[in-house]
Amino acid sequence: MGYAALGDFIPLYPLYALLFSDVGFSLAQISTLFVIWSVASAVLEVPTGALSDIVQRKHLLVVAPLLASAGFCLWFLIPTYIGFAAGFLLWAASSTLVSGTWEALVYEDLHAAGRPLEYATVASRAAVASWMAVVAASLLAAPLFALGGYGAVLAVTLVALIAQAWLALSLPRVTACRDVEAGYLATLRAGLMQAMRRGRIRWLVIAAVVLAGLASVEEYLPLLLRADGFGAAAVSLLFTLFPLAAAAGGAAAPALRNVASGVLIVVLLVSSIAAVATGLWAPVWIGLPTLVCWYGFVECARVSAGAWLQHAAQSDARATVTSVVGFGSELAVIVLFLTVAAGDVLAR
Asked: Which 3 state secondary structure label does DSSP give 218?
């Protein structure tokens, strides 16, 4: 849980969209940066998941935060469109190395200890820890920004990521549940076959993809808050409402363990349309609480779907199957970002 929490202790997170705006980028330009981020993540997601199924997973978890650190440094060393895009490429590589890898390592560690049914509880607690780290980082962002601007925010972010890499060195080396001698292409094929052909896994993948696509709305929340007249410090404080809601949703995730995934998708789609419409067009004192509550519900469902997927997946390609979710999620996110970019261009 400490590894997951440190990975989300990023004071830069609630402010980086504002950084792009302060440099002079339009909403359309910012959206294209998000698209580059998502396309890179989509391209790398499944291959890195398959890699995780044939090498020691802890090694990938050590490298991942170091790549993210390098990406953030590029934003400040080369504050141009090319520099920001390169930073997003490194952040994408970091995220995809963790995606599927961490979940598979935790599940197989519990399986080796004879406690696989505890995964849902552990995943729920890890989600809560991660979101509380986001809250702490967001609260810290305001005084850091007031003290030293974006540079101070970056410095603390780098310390957290380096600490995450150091902590990864102490993670277990679990190999009992899988064949690490399997070839890369064979493992990749096995994971893709599980995700596409096994009925229950296919529905769980769809549910997880829908949830990730919905949650990506958060990337625009700082810009929405600024449009309502809030400054950088206020944005970082108001942003904490969303991870707090997500932490509450993650804690409540075990309550959805018996809900059918198809029903979950329908409820989420209907509630999401209503919540996003309210958030965009209603006054901020109505729209903000609505989006906060909806975001907590999305996180509750996301953690539940992730736990179901780990139980259903076979161990020989577990990280690959989980990465298929990441691939589909990035495609959903790309659609959202392109829609926003097109809307901004047409509105000008």
From this structure: helix
What span, in angstroms and rounded, lies between the C-alpha atoms of 171 and 151? 31
Q: Model pTM?
A: 0.73
Residue 134 structure tokens: 């986001």
As a whole number of angstroms, the distance between CA 44 and CA 307 comes to 23
**230 exposed, middle or buried (CB, 10 Å; 0-12, 13-18, 19+)?**
middle
Query: Where does 172-198 have alpha helices with state H?
Result: 184-197
Mean pLDDT, 10 residues at a time, the chain of 348 residues: 86 90 90 89 82 83 96 95 96 90 82 77 83 88 91 95 92 55 56 60 70 73 80 82 86 69 67 73 80 83 73 64 73 78 72
Output the six-digit token pair for 91: 């952040």
| CA distances, 342 to each of 38, 184, 347 (Å) | 16, 39, 9
Place of tokens 């903000």: 288
Domain that residue 146 falls in: 2-347
Q: Which of 35, 16, 17, 29 is nearest to 337 (CA)?
A: 35
- Residue 341 maps to which CATH number? 1.20.1250.20
For helices 284-312 and 119-168, angle between their N-to-C axes, nearest 10 degrees: 90
Count helices and strands in the chain by DSSP H and E runs? 15, 0
Residue 232, Cβ neighbours under 10 Å: how many?
23
Domain count, the chain: 1
pLDDT for residue 251: 83
